[in-house]
Amino acid sequence: MTDEQSEQRPQQQADAAPWWAGTGPVGGVVLILLGVGAGLALFLGGFDSQDELTHLHGAAKVVAVGLVVAGTTLLARRRRTGDEGDAAGSDG
Q1: Is residue 7 part of a domain?
Q2: Would you say 35 and 59 are in contact if contact means Cβ atoms under 8 Å apart?
Q3: C-alpha–C-alpha distance, residues 19 and 77, integer Å
Q4: Rg of the chain's alpha carbons, rounded to an integer?
Q5: Can you give the pLDDT of all 92 residues of the chain as single tens digits?
Q6: 63 touches 37 (CB < 8 A)
Q7: Cα separation, 4 vs 23, whole angstroms
Q8: pTM for this one?
Q9: Residue 18's CB: how many other CB atoms inside 10 A?
């Protein structure tokens, strides 16, 4: 393997983040609302075929991803502010 090939491999792996990784808490809330809206539309429309149940399962996945994105972003933000408060408290 040449040096050029070995340099390209880590760059490609770093770019392989999921599509929702950079959305933040607002994106998480939008995904939750989108999934709930899709689920309600399917639920209120009735279930005529197995295909609609598959779409309902997809809407539930969107809600789950939104919950994970919003939750992890808010937890990271809380940890950051908690660390700053601990540092300020130890200085005084």
Answers
A1: no
A2: yes
A3: 21
A4: 21
A5: 566 665 555 555 555 677 767 778 888 899 899 999 988 988 888 777 778 888 888 999 999 999 998 888 888 888 887 766 666 666 54
A6: no
A7: 33
A8: 0.63
A9: 9
Alpha-carbon gap, residue 33 to 62, rounded angstroms? 9
In a domain, 17, yes or no: no
| Residue in the block written with tokens 């990784």 | 21
Q: State the alpha helices, DSSP H only, in the chain.
A: 3-14, 24-45, 50-91
Task: List the one residue out of 17, 15, 21 whose CA is nearest residue 73.
Answer: 21
To which residue do tokens 């502010």 refer?
Answer: 81
The pair of three-digit structure tokens given for residue 83, joined into one six-digit string: 């660390």
The Cα–Cα gap between 61 and 41 comes to 15
Please check whether residue 48 lies inside any domain of the structure: yes
Cα dihedral 60→64→66→71 (10° resolution) = 150
Give CA–CA dist 62/34, Å, rounded: 8
Assess if residue 6 is contained within a domain: no
What is the model's pLDDT at position 64? Answer: 93
